[in-house]
Amino acid sequence: MRRYRNGRLAAVLAGAYAALVVLLGVVSTVILLTVPDPILVTGVALMIVTFPLGPLVWWAWDAVPSGLADPVLLIVVLTAVGVLQAYLLWRVTRGPAAEG
């Protein structure tokens, strides 16, 4: 297995970011499914945390047909975008492979 110059730090940063995104996604989904009239502060926080792709998904959601525009699906998509960004964060911050 390869070792990277900043591998551990990159893994910690990306893991913490992914954990925050998943936590916000799970809490938002639970609130949507259990509260009769939800006010989703966690959904807005998820959109902000997943910047820059999160706001793009949020604004593009208006183009989704009304039959498919389920708020739970929006939260799932935002969470998936956040996990993708965590992976990209790890790839960018890990640095080059260490020799030896």
Tell me about this structure:
α3 runs antiparallel to α4. With 100 residues, this protein is an all-alpha fold. The termini are close together. Helices cover 68% and strands 0% of the residues. The longest helix is centred in the N-terminal third of the chain and has 28 residues.
Give the averaged pLDDT, no decimals.
Answer: 92
Quote the distance from N terminus to C terminus: 12 Å
Q: What Rg is obtained from the alpha carbons, in whole angstroms?
A: 16 Å
Structural class: mainly alpha
Stretches where pLDDT is under 50 for at least 5 consecutive residues are none
- Measured as a percent range, the helix fraction is 55-70%
Largest sheet: none
Features of this protein?
mainly alpha; 100 residues; single chain
Task: Spell out the blueprint of helices and strands.
Layout: H1 7-34, H2 41-49, H3 53-60, H4 71-93
Helix pairs in contact: 1-2, 1-4, 2-3, 2-4, 3-4
Short synopsis of the structure:
This protein is about 70% helix and about 0% strand. With about 100 residues, it is mainly α.
